[in-house]
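Reopening this one. Same input as before:
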Amino acid sequence: MEFKDYYAALGVERDATDDALRKAYRKLARKYHPDVSKEADAQTRMRDINEANDVLRDKDKRAAYDALADRVARGGGSAGGHAGGPGGGGFQPPPGWDEGFEFHHSTGQGPADHAHFSEFFSSVFGKSAHRSASSGNYRARGEDHHAAIEISVEDAINGVERDIALRALETDAQGQPNFVNRTLTVKIPAGVHPGQFIRLTGHGMPGHGGEPAGDLYLEVRIALHSLYRVDGRDLYLTLPVTPTEAALGAQVQVPTPNGSVLEVTVPPNARSGLKLRLKERGLPGKPPGHLYLLLDIVLPPADTEAARKAYEQLAQAAPFNPRRHLGVEGDV
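Same output, byte for byte:
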């Protein structure tokens, strides 16, 4: 059996605050939760993350774990007479290590959920955890769950109501864990942006001993759009213009995500990549985002005799060398 470094599992230091632990857990849960993760080892990593969170978010378990880790670091854990240590193999908890500690399930993991935890967890916390639960003193708020929802740019601007299907691990009447499919109707408010969380109170895991259920946190993702690129609350649109429009300036029409069409001024002598801002035409919010237009000069094809002559006349009338700054000899 191997000693588990729960702080390393969550990627935090030993002096991490409760807030730091909560943020670390949520970040990792978004990455490895089986409902949303594409990682090959997502299920194993999520189990390790849940296990570390269960211990470190409970002040009694954390105090006992820290005391055990200190004792092991001094050579107090062994198997077969050989000392073990944090991160090493062959670990067995020393006799009487847990005297003075009583463990509770403050993070929403019940006895059935613990069945999926590691051998290390069972050997260290299993008996005390079971005793606490079976004594009738087991009380815990339900565990929070995380999932993702993908919407369109238009939905982010106008808001939308969506039905989402989720698969969650729950315990049945016999205390056995089972995956349960459920459907929720979710109202997405106008103005959401990528990475924002929508909290659905009470839609996480059930509580124990009369404690409330956990919450469900939906991470908003915005689908790729054929016209607009999303950056926070700002939107970007590549705007094609002709060489004539770019050189002389022009009034061109631009579609906006809310369905309207605006007339925009392209300034004379505009270059490709020039960025024009349409104030507060991005995703709504406080403050609202902007819509940025990135000019892209598109050349008419020289696919007819008339077009080729027009290019020849332009070259004669307005000689121009875009490579002058390269200093290439013989290039006029």
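So the earlier flakiness isn't reproducible anymore. For the record, Residues 22 and 53 are 8 Å apart (CA to CA).
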